[in-house]
Amino acid sequence: MYKKVNLAAKLASFDEVWVPKVVAELNGQLVKVVKFEGEYCWHQHENEDELFWVLAGQMKVLLRDGEVDLGPGEFYVVPRGVEHKPVVPDGICEVVLFEPDTTLNTGDVRNDLTRARLDRI
Question: Among 111, 69, 65, 114, which residue's Cα sits nearest to residue 93?
């Protein structure tokens, strides 16, 4: 009945990058883990904020008018409607995302990175 989530174990269970995996949900929000490597696409989420919480590695959230550098234990909330691009300059970055369950990973962009359905692990 009582089940905890081990984020390190969940992240160790897959190697794909840029493909979020759902590990929990609460109050209409999904908790996702994902591995980032290299550069993602510019996109925005018109109706949803997006939280990037770094567990391991380093990443940047590029914004049209600046950037936010994140390391382990740090997070940033991209406000709804703000165009952004996650970038990992070196290696792999392990990230937790908190987003409404309606949030599409590529926001207003549709490309080969778009995942309409996410695996639950």
Answer: 69
Pairing of strands 59-63, 21-26: unpaired
| Angstrom distance (rounded) from CA 91 to CA 65 | 25
* CA distances (Å), origin 20, targets 1, 31, 52, 66: 25, 9, 12, 25
Give the global pTM: 0.90
Q: CA distances (Å), 62 to each of 57, 76, 87, 113, 114, in order?
A: 16, 11, 7, 18, 19
- The predicted-structure confidence for 38-55, as pLDDT tens digits, reads as follows 999 999 999 999 999 999
Distance between CA 50 and CA 107 in Å, rounded? 10
